[in-house]
Amino acid sequence: MSHLLLPVLFVVGLIYASVGHGGASGYIVAMTLLGVAPEQIKPTALLLNLFVSSVAFFQYYRAGHFRWATFWPFAISSVPLAFVGARLPLSDTLYKQLLAGCLLLLIVRLIWSTKANEEAQKPIPPAVGLLVGGAVGLLSGMLGIGGGIILSPLLLIFNWATIRQTAATSALFIFVNSVSGLVGLLTKGYSPAPEQYTWIAAAFAGGLVGGYLGSHRFSVPLLRYVLALGVAVACVKLLI
């Protein structure tokens, strides 16, 4: 089934980048189902996250959707704790349950509200941002994800950002957390395998397409439905 991995990574990168996500949760499910060695899955997901989230952020930033005021309160505490989380041991069962729970949180939020949040922008209390960012960073490091699927619904629920501002913020948030988590894994002896470079190319190509479509072409409601579909599939695969 390894021949299916490249097109699957391309599609996952496209779908997730269209909403400002790196796609780690999707990569994890795909690699698990397609027989990638378990010890490679978490670091590979973070590595793919780096490339896809960076291109997604570039597209949303260039389109004028990024706000530093939305990003920094969460990132300050998230980055160091993502490093810590990446070094913590986690059983396979608990790992899948936590990841599925994060996916369910995002799905519920996306389906719950059909009205696009394109106007409300409330200030983020710094203390709340630090607390939330730290918790998300720790969990992200433990799971091998960037944390965008956790942060995004919070930004929308509390009206801290519009849907496209959320995508832009999440993309950079995912990037910095993925760097931190990957460094944590490198300190434990991880080194990339040669075949991972082709995986990166496939996901990166999908991210280029998805980032452009999300920041310029897709409608706001469609962004919600595309993301909900992708994470629903990933969640089901984790729980069965």
UniProtKB/TrEMBL annotation:
The record lists the membrane-crossing segments as 44-61, 68-88, 124-151, 163-185, 197-216
Tell me the leader sequence span: none
Q: Which GO terms describe its cellular component?
A: plasma membrane
Localization recorded for this chain is: Cell membrane; Membrane
Q: Which domain of life is it from?
A: Bacteria
**What is the topology of this protein in the membrane according to its UniProt annotation?**
Multi-pass membrane protein
Q: Which UniProt keywords apply?
A: Cell membrane, Membrane, Transmembrane, Transmembrane helix
Pfam families for this protein: TauE
PANTHER family for this protein: MEMBRANE TRANSPORTER PROTEIN MJ0441-RELATED, MEMBRANE TRANSPORTER PROTEIN-RELATED
| Entry similarity comment | Belongs to the 4-toluene sulfonate uptake permease (TSUP) (TC 2.A.102) family.
- Could you identify this protein by its name? Probable membrane transporter protein
Recorded source organism is: Fibrella rubiginis
